[in-house]
Amino acid sequence: MGHLYMMTTIVDRKIAKRYVELYEENDNHVMFITYGVGTATSDVLDYLGLDHTEKVIIFSVQEESSWTNLKKQLEKKLKIDAPGNGIAFTIPLSSIGGNKALQFLTENRPFQKEEESTLKDTSHELIIVIAEQGNIDLVMDSARAAGAYGGTVIHAKGTGTQEASKFMGVSIAAEKEMIFIVTQKAQKNSIMKAIMENAGLDSKAKSVVFSLPVTDTAGLRLIED
To answer: 19-62, pLDDT tens digit by residue?
Structure first.
């Protein structure tokens, strides 16, 4: 008790309803859902049994025990570890803006914040790349060359002033692609370095890349094996 996480679920669009229904059955109704596109190569798609790469990304806030319960059900009921059935992972939240927001995101479930602790021995990381629109292949070719399996792309648009757009030559308000790559911690540095060298701010992609610790995952075991 006392630790909150942002749970992110990435699944094929045609089976997303099953995941939403499972979460609702477990009294999780506050979810944020968006659409994305997978970046896996054709041979990976064939291996995973996917006929297209349209994705649904589901965000929700979970307490540690609720994630543990959902992970078990994802593995048992939806067979998330089987190829093509998606992935889910958790990222720790350091703060939430106010008690009302906390009550909304946790659906008014009892919660008592514990002291913050330093994360140690996390085995996975979420790499987030923000690149100029139209440069997904450049980013992902660089990432794959360094060992990445694939990623999920969300179309976005920055919100910056005219002055901010001059920062390091990056247009803050231009159309962007946000690319999410979940990887083993040991591969994180090499993947980020490859992206920065080949698709960084000095390239046409003008990518900004950063990473977040992933505390737990479901659905990656067979791919990594």
So the answer is: 999 999 999 998 989 888 887 666 655 544 444 578 999 999 99
154 contacts: CB under 8 Å, gap ≥ 6: 34, 35, 36, 57, 177, 178, 179, 180
Domain ranges of the chain: 4-118+216-224, 124-214
CATH of 124-214, one of 2.60.40.10, 3.40.50.280, 3.10.560.10, 3.30.70.120: 3.30.70.120
Longest dimension (CA), the chain: 52
Kindly state the tokens that stand for 147.
Answer: 């060992």
- d(CA 209, CA 201) in angstroms, rounded, equals 10
Rg of the chain over Cα atoms, rounded to whole angstroms, equals: 18
State the pLDDT at residue 150.
85
Q: What are phi and psi of 99, to 5 degrees?
A: -70, -35
Query: Residue 171: what pLDDT?
Result: 53
Helical segments of 33-135, H only = 42-48, 64-76, 99-105
Domain 4-118+216-224 is of which CATH architecture?
2-Layer Sandwich (3.30)
Same fold, 4-118+216-224 and 124-214: yes
The pTM is what? 0.75
How far, in Å, CA of 114 to CA of 9, rounded? 26
Which residues sit opposite 180 in a β-bridge? 128, 152
